[in-house]
């Protein structure tokens, strides 16, 4: 305990001396470097979580659902009664070739669902933004199209679309006759693959065109859970009550896509971590300079009986102080930027647009272009969101603190090379 007290005392004295002159600038740059790296990592993680979370939510709620079950009506009834089930409904989905206005054609995934789907599945209702018309499948010839799909077909609410060819069962015809639907609504999810290829029809219309969807006495059903993260636990319970049913989680159903998102996030983290490497090298050189400037003091401490490890502890404490100050500042800045990320992007766009207008006024342009960070012509993003997770912020904070401490530790190893007799000979 006594050793810790004098180590902290000496570290404080060294720190007060280093707070003046050139050493002060080096210390300030070290703190700012840690702060910048911490803030950058937090912002990147938060924005990536927001972008990925939006896509994952759209996929889970609209496309894959939380759990897919293939089973008999008895199996589906047993599974629906399990704890944690929010909704369960039978559906079919088939590929088709659809034609719209002026003969425009596009491939489409048609999903036949119960007409009261939105009241049953509140999660899907929250992700399906009806941009035009309504989600009304009460009529057997009604269809709901994705926003981008409707744009491809050049169709709007109230117009008709035709099915030219479909994939179905033995009871369906690959070239259905008079398979026309009235566009009752157009939805938007913010996920391009869904908006450009999905369409919804009623279960009765799907059975008429594609057949019942029953295969070997089993139906395909979508299950929504109260907590999607408990899918593995739910699958184990479902297999005990319905061992003959085929059960698939949203994780395995979208494994390739989620794997790509994970690789993308890890790559960005790796690039951002290079900031800490540069800062750590800077702190290492700063600590080596500090050791050289305090060599006489270090030798006096050594001659007084201080062990090399204890002297190194002085510089490690200073490194922890630098890392802690920078990490706290970086966490605060990173959280503020993440929470107000929309305002930050709007401010950048406004600034660049203002500069463009200023330059255009000298060039004689009457209508300078309006700058957009995420131009809708190239990016399918309507807004930037951030999701902040405590464990990630804590990891970045600890990483920032201990990167500085590690640099101080390796720099402090030079202490053992100092020879008190040679340095103090002429003092």
The residue ranges in which pLDDT falls below 50 over 5 or more consecutive positions are none
Number of discrete helical segments: 16
User: What share of the residues lie within helices?
Assistant: 55-70%
The major β-sheet equals:
6 strands, mixed, barrel
**What is the chain-wise order of helices and strands?**
HHEHEEEHHEEHEEHEHEHEHHHHHHH
**What strand order characterises the main sheet?**
3-4-9-6-8-7
Mean pLDDT across the residues is 78
Please indicate the percent range of residues in DSSP E strands (runs of 2 or more): 15-25%
Task: Give the N-to-C terminal Cα separation.
Answer: 32 Å
Indicate the structural class: alpha+beta
**Morphology call:** elongated
Rg of Cα set? 32 Å
What does this structure look like?
The protein is an alpha+beta fold. Helix content is 57%, strand content 16%. The chain is built from 16 helices and eleven strands. The strands form two sheets. It has a six-stranded mixed beta barrel with strand order 3-4-9-6-8-7. It has a four-stranded antiparallel β-sheet with strand order 2-10-1-11. Helix 1 (2-18) packs across helix 13 (308-339). The radius of gyration is 32 Å and the shape is elongated.
